[in-house]
């Protein structure tokens, strides 16, 4: 997984190495390549000796330097870069070329403690840090080293940001043994594979009290992934750490909420949005401006003639004959040629829609199409399922706290820069309690809104769908509305609660003799498995079964349970303080 970087330039550069992320991308330190153009860099892969005649040599096509890297003036914080190769490495053709594994950390774990204090790590490289050059006759070396506590005085005076950097050395005196190469990997053993946890950043070789400084890789997973996704590539960690969960839709017995293909989702909250399986979300559409391929917002198919989206997406268009707005259906890739385009006849914005800044109330709209889409005769199109709940008490708790949900869309991934993926993205999030302090300050009306958390900085696909799995089909329980995660990924997003607007939606759709699906009121017992983050809740995980039969006994029982739960939390808070 290690490669040697060769520089063919008059500019003097220290020897460096890197590691293979996938067929096209190499991971290294920013300081290695900050002053050199891509055409002067080649990489050698599959080698044990630098002079190996069987080396796989590739030219670097493009450099992605971390946008906040400032070099030694900032203590080498954000010392990370990606190199895109001009052609793929083709792992299947060379047994000596393999990708590195990078961390997939659970959201509840403190990244600044990964790897944790005292962890035994291994550095590999050709020891150019010690020698100042690469000895072409020197074989690849490996040495053990240890993580030193972030709060150790030796580390505190050596690095700037403990969340983005960590230090290693001999535990006795912190002395850096001066192993490896700049930009090279440092790894820990994970019982069945090696995982790269850092990138060699800078060192004061052999001076007691000054350990080596490494870029903490777990902090930059989102940034790495955002670059790779923009080239329709993926990290190998997604497939090596977690197997996808397949949701088998009961297409023979349901009339909505199922795509042509089954949905597959990697249940990981650190890697971010993953590519959707082709034709798995066939109820989703792209809103676009006429004569342009620019994706504006997301939406979903309510019926042959109606599209559901957010009101703020279409408020600037004419309500009657908005000639400059179209929808594109039947696609997973925005550039798919086999797409269904339809023009908008009329826009129905909720009569009570209001907004201040980016806070929206009653953020829901329905678009009527000129030409029906004939969903039943087209396998690449399907209806979305809208909740039908008769109890107002159950409505403001639906979906319930902690429910695992999925958002989908082509929304811009925001992490230092804006990148618009071509492939439809999907991401798991979790419902947060209405009364949680982070939510109560953002929600204007708990009847019509709910909030859910995303462990990632992401600019949501406005108007897009947020759905839950019922065991037989996907049910859309919300619309992506306000977005508050641009600056702080710990702040949740606000979503329009669809169950509150069922009657209004029914009234509009019925004007042309059509109807929403499903037509029945919810009366089944639904089991919802949830994973709860400790930063938002007081337990690590729970499984909840809810009775969705809308009767007074069920509603009263639910209210009593919620009151009891809040009393227990209050007692715990008093005891802790």
CATH superfamily of the largest domain: Trypsin-like serine proteases
Lateral strand order in the biggest sheet: 1-2-3-6-5-4
Helix content: 10-25%
What average pLDDT do the residues reach? Answer: 79
* First-residue to last-residue Cα separation: 50 Å
Broad structural category: mainly beta
Shape: globular
Keywords:
single chain; 577 residues; mainly beta; Thrombin, subunit H; transmembrane helix; serine-type endopeptidase activity; Peptidase S1 domain-containing protein; hydrolase
Task: Tell me the layout of helices and strands.
Blueprint lengths: L1 E6 L8 E5 L4 E4 L1 H4 L7 E5 L10 E10 L15 E5 L34 E6 L2 H4 L9 E8 L4 H4 L8 E5 L15 E5 L4 E9 L9 E5 L4 H9 L7 H5 L3 E3 L15 E3 L8 E2 L8 E6 L5 E7 L4 E4 L1 H4 L10 E5 L10 E10 L4 E3 L2 E3 L3 E5 L22 H4 L8 E6 L3 E2 L3 E2 L5 E8 L4 H4 L8 E5 L11 E5 L4 E7 L12 E5 L4 H8 L15 E7 L9 E7 L4 H25 L1
Antiparallel strand pairs: 1-2, 1-4, 2-3, 3-6, 4-5, 5-6, 7-8, 7-10, 8-9, 9-12, 10-11, 11-12, 13-14, 15-27, 16-17, 16-19, 17-18, 18-23, 19-20, 20-23, 21-22, 24-27, 24-29, 25-26, 27-28, 28-31, 29-30, 30-31, 32-33
Q: Can you give a write-up of this model?
A:
This protein is mainly beta and 577 residues long. 12% of the residues lie in helices and 31% in strands. The protein has two domains: 220 residues, Thrombin, subunit H; 305 residues, Trypsin-like serine proteases (Thrombin, subunit H), CATH 2.40.10. The strands form eight sheets. The protein has a six-stranded antiparallel barrel. A hairpin with a 4-residue loop joins strand 17 and strand 18. It comes from Rotaria sordida. Keywords: Disulfide bond, Hydrolase, Membrane, Protease, Serine protease, Transmembrane, Transmembrane helix. InterPro entries: Peptidase_S1_PA (IPR009003), Peptidase_S1_PA_chymotrypsin (IPR043504), Peptidase_S1A (IPR001314), Ser/Thr_Proteases_Immune/Dev (IPR051487), Trypsin_dom (IPR001254), TRYPSIN_HIS (IPR018114), TRYPSIN_SER (IPR033116).
